[in-house]
């Protein structure tokens, strides 16, 4: 089928090109037809993460029509394959233009995975006859059919732009994105929350967006009114599955159907003194409705205060800025932004259906962010420019939950664990181009983030029941924690000789989470990049190098709530024991990449060659230090501290070689012969290679069935992401014809 | 009190700017020195390749109103060429505008804005970062390279707007760190040509953060990831605030473009009794038993997501259930 589609399109274009093969023809374009062969060491989703590169024929082409005031172009490739695209655009110069597109591509996550369920990827997943967690310890009892974790994205859309009504303008765009497939999903057992099963959750949803803008534009003023509507429908919102650990039929509640609309005004005005004032104001509302009885199968003894949940979140946004050029060499900018996220969704109480007692409720969050800033840039000389900037940002967070139907909202003070934050950010930049062939840029930025920390009521840290409240007093969420950040970026642009461009860049960032006792307390990043290209009379060379190292330090306190001595103490300042102790982790990633290539003619205007090599490597580690080393709080056995460290932590190596020989037989007809080698190796402690023996006695690597103790099982996995590695050799030949 | 001083300082700065404002001319025009127009035929004699590219481009079409083809042709942009011709040619000779990077960026942009200032795409150019950073139209757009269509291996959608190559190559010339990021293991499909930089960013100026095409990061992400839009009954607070707290937009080394690996990312906020505060070192991974440890399903595989899969929000009731994002 695929071959027929390709050949049909090619023949059509060939006939078309022959019919209009004249010098003054309004038609032009090209077609290509090729074939590829692939030799791959093992099937890997990583090889085709967003593609469907497969052996066989491939083709495509484009057709352009350009006559008088009308123009039209259609371009498409890989028709009949799962990663094709077709795009059309055209219009009448000065009056209107339009575009249409259809594209499809996969997102491949993992291939040849297994499932304990007989119908993975469906909305109702059941077990085989007589299957239990005990019998499923034997992998041979699992359904033999394997499946892939992947989903396809199909996107179709278009735009229309009306220009003939100048100075007014109107444009509209719309698209529909459809996704189908399945992704890995973890679901724990309601009977014993430590038991969990990995299953294939179906994806079947559609997002449709429509936007329209109407406005007026002149050299001095601009005003645009925009509106849009988006709706999302989920054809697989609820998934039922039979819990292998004996919990009966269970349900997963997925993303709800939802819709969103917005109204927006944007305007600019050029003012005297070379100033421009820009303003935008918008309102957006996101809504959803969920019938709560559909979200569960059986939760005994619990009812809800309302039968359905209505989600309603509003965004109010206002932003303005004023840019000026008050002096010949001075430019300034003042700006203001305000974003108010209002959560007007339902609060739902959970009520004991027997006693009527209040069991809890959902908690809703919203926030307001205010930002003001100023920048000034001054050109000292023709080659030297300085920029200074300051920005203040204030984020007020609110949470509200219902207690017995009363909405409790605390808008003025932050509750423990949800701090308000504010940021002061200063930056200074120098741009200096002292020589014709040398340019430099240096930027320094300092950020200070403060946070209001409201402590919980004083509690006895030695009381196990108060442990979480005590921990909250020492813990700041990293995105809302007090922080000081220093950032430096320097760039050197060199053009020492004609056609040789080299850029060197260094960036440094250091985060210090001030006064942090639990959570992140320090993070740092260094990145060094070199990028260059050289053109020597048609012979081109290019190369790059990138080294990026990051590390994050954090401290956590382990607290085992028990009444068995030694009693835990949740305070991180307290002495450690086997039921409460501090531990630290330092997570580091060293990533470096380099590549080089060249393209050069062998015979001028006839034969040319392109070759390129790329390499990338990442080494990740997790270093741990701990006040207490036993993994079992009840056992005094201490581990070797050096063995806690994790060394393969998202370690990978990627490399590719590509070589292409292009032969222009005539000005219209050409051939390309190509070879590509790609390799990917991945090593990670969380997703190691699959243990072929699948027994706890050998413990070589990843196992589908995991058991905390002999004779038991608490985890049933599906093999997601275990197929990362591959070696692939790709050969292709392509013929191209232009008319 | 501190905030009051900050605000008053800003007000004072604003007043200072207005007080010190004086007329000035921003658009420095190249001095012509008495040069006159010579016509496209003269340009074509020496610059035939450039002329052909111009003639094939939309700028060379007489049917388009107010086009260079209906005015002075090449000299509409490069300036009158009589002195250039008289002096025998050469780069910049005779006061020609070469659009070389060494020329003043505002001057180069002014040439394009002379015609394109009415374009709605450029409505917020003055507010944008690129203008502030002295990036000019010709730094990204190359009129003479002509429009290209993508009919090659893995190049994806056809480039637009006279960019000399796929968009990410053009943007990556300056944004080297982003170019490195999109090539890392976990990335948006930018190098595969499935999405482009301009799907999310407005390079000509925008009032959103990082020149994105939305008022906030989340509102942009929801355009393609509407399943995360909710609103959800049980919310995960950082999710609704900013996707970028946990995810890298361009690419990274961890699965799902996460900023840190799970469980470390989660433990950056969560420390509580039972397992959130547990140390998940090598002793808890698949091979943990070899070193006297005990593998834990909170550590191996997808770690926290082995149970807490609905991490962006949940409408399931019950506790633990939707409130812990396990249903």
Structure commentary:
The complex is a heterodimer of chains A (739) and B (327). With 739 residues, chain A is mainly beta. Helix content of chain A is 4%, strand content 60%. Chain A has a 26-stranded antiparallel barrel. In chain A, strands 6-11-12 form a three-stranded mixed β-sheet, with no helix packed on it. A three-stranded antiparallel β-sheet of chain A has the order 15-18-19, with no helix packed on it. In chain A, a hairpin with a 6-residue loop joins strand 26 and strand 27. The two termini of chain A are 27 Å apart. With 327 residues, chain B is an all-alpha fold. Among the domains of chain B are: 74 residues, no CATH class; 97 residues, no CATH class. Chain B is built from 14 helices and two strands. Chain B has a two-stranded antiparallel ribbon with strand order 1-2. About 10% of the residues of chain B have low confidence. At the A-B interface, strand 2, strand 3, strand 5, strand 8 and strand 9 of A face helix 1, helix 10 and helix 13 of B.
């Amino acid at each position: 089928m695929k071959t027929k589609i390709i050949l049909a399109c090619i023949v059509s274009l060939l006939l078309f090109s022959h019919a209009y093969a004249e010098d003054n023809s309004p038609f032009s374009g090209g077609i290509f037809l090729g074939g590829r062969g692939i030799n791959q060491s093992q099937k890997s989703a990583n090889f085709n993460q967003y593609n469907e590169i497969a052996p066989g024929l491939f083709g495509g082409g484009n057709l352009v029509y350009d006559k008088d005031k009308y123009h039209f172009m259609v371009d498409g490739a890989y028709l009949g394959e799962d990663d094709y695209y077709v795009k059309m655009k055209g219009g009448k110069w000065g009056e209107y233009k339009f575009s249409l597109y259809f594209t499809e591509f996969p997102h491949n996550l993992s291939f040849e995975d297994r499932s304990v369920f007989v119908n993975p990827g469906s909305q109702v997943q059941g077990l085989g006859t007589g299957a239990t967690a005990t019998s499923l310890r034997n992998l041979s009892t699992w359904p033999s059919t394997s499946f892939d974790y992947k989903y396809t994205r199909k996107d179709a859309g278009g735009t229309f732009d009306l220009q003939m009504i100048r100075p007014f303008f109107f444009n509209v765009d719309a698209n529909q994105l459809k996704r189908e497939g399945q992704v890995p999903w973890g679901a724990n057992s309601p009977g014993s929350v430590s038991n969990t099963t990995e299953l294939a959750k179906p994806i079947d949803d559609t997002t449709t967006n429509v936007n329209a803008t109407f406005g007026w534009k002149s050299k001095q003023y601009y005003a645009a009114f925009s509106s849009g509507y988006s709706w999302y429908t989920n054809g697989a919102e609820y998934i039922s599955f039979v819990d292998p650990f004996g919990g009966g039929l269970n349900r997963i509640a997925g993303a709800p159907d939802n819709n969103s609309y917005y109204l927006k005004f944007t305007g600019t005005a050029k003012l005297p003194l070379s100033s421009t004032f820009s303003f935008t104001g918008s309102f957006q509302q996101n809504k959803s409705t969920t019938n709560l009885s559909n979200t569960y199968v059986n939760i005994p003894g619990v009812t809800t205060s309302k039968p359905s949940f209505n989600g309603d979140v509003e965004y109010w946004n206002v932003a303005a800025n004023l840019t000026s050029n008050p002096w010949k060499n001075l430019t300034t900018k003042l700006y203001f932004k305000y974003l108010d996220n209002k959560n007007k969704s339902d609060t739902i109480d959970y009520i004991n259906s027997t006693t009527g007692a209040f069991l809890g409720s959902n908690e809703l969050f919203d926030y307001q962010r205010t930002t003001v800033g100023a920048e000034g840039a001054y050109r000292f000389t023709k080659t030297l420019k300085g920029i200074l900037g300051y920005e203040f940002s204030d984020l007020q967070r609110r949470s509200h939950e219902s207690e017995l139907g009363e909405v409790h909202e605390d808008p003025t003070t932050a509750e423990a664990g949800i701090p308000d934050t504010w940021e002061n950010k200063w930056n200074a930049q120098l741009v200096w181009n002292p020589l014709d062939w040398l340019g430099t840029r240096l930027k320094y930025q300092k950020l200070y983030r403060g946070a209001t920390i409201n402590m919980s009521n004083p509690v006895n840290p030695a009381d196990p029941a108060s442990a979480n409240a005590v921990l909250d007093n020492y813990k700041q969420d990293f995105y809302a924690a007090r922080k000081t950040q220093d950032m430096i970026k320097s760039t050197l642009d060199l053009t020492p000789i004609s056609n040789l461009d080299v850029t060197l860049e260094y960036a440094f960032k250091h985060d210090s989470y001030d006064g942090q006792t639990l959570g992140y307390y320090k993070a740092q990043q260094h990145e060094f990049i070199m990028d260059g290209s050289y053109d020597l009379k048609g012979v081109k060379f290019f190369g790059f190098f990138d080294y990026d190292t990051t590390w994050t330090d954090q401290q956590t306190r382990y607290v085992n709530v028990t009444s068995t001595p030694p009693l835990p103490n949740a305070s991180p300042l307290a002495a450690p024991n086997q039921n409460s102790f501090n531990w630290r982790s330092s997570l580091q990633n060293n990533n470096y990449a380099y590549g080089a290539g060249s393209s050069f003619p062998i015979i001028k205007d006839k034969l040319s060659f392109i070759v390129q090599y790329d390499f990338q490597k990442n080494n990740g580690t997790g270093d741990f230090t701990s006040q207490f080393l036993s993994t079992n709080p009840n056992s005094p056995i201490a581990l070797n501290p050096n063995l806690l460290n994790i060394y393969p932590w998202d370690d990978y190596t990627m490399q590719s070689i590509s070589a292409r020989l292009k032969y222009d037989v005539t000005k219209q007809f050409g051939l390309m012969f190509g070879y590509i080698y790609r390799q990917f190796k991945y090593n990670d402690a969380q997703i190691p290679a699959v243990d072929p023996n699948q027994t706890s006695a050998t413990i070589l690597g990843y196992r589908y069935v995991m058991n905390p103790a002999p004779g038991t099982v608490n985890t049933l996995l599906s093999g997601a992401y275990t197929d990362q590695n591959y070696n692939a050799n790709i050969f292709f030949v392509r013929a191209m014809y232009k008319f | 009190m501190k905030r009051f001083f900050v605000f008053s300082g800003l007000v004072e700065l604003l007043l200072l700017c207005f007080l010190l404002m004086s007329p000035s001319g921003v658009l420095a025009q190249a001095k012509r020195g008495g040069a006159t127009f010579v016509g496209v035929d003269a340009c074509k004699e020496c610059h035939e390749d450039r002329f052909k590219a111009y003639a094939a481009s939309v700028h060379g079409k007489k049917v388009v109103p107010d086009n260079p083809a209906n005015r002075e042709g090449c000299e509409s942009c490069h300036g009158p060429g009589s002195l250039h011709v008289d002096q025998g040619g050469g780069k910049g000779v005779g006061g020609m505008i070469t659009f070389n990077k060494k020329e003043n960026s505002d001057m180069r942009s002014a040439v394009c804005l002379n015609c394109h200032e009415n374009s709605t795409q450029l409505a917020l150019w003055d507010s944008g970062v690129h203008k502030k950073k002295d990036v000019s139209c010709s730094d990204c757009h190359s009129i003479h390279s002509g429009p290209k269509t993508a009919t090659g291996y893995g190049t994806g959608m056809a480039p637009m707007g006279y960019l000399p190559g796929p968009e990410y190559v053009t943007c990556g010339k300056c944004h080297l760190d982003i170019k490195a990021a999109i090539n890392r293991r976990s990335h948006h499909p930018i190098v595969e040509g499935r999405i482009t930089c301009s799907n999310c960013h407005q390079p000509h100026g925008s009032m959103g953060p990082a020149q994105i095409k939305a008022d906030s990061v989340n509102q942009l992400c929801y355009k393609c990831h509407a399943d995360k839009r909710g609103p959800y009954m049980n919310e995960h607070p950082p999710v609704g605030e900013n996707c970028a707290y946990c995810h890298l937009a361009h690419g990274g080394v961890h699965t799902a473009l996460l900023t840190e690996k799970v469980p470390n990312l989660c433990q950056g906020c969560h420390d509580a009794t039972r397992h959130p505060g547990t140390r998940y070192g090598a002793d808890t991974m698949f091979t943990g038993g070899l070193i006297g440890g005990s593998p834990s399903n909170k550590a191996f595989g997808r770690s926290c997501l082995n149970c807490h899969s609905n991490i962006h929000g949940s409408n399931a009731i019950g506790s633990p259930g939707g409130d812990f994002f396990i249903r």
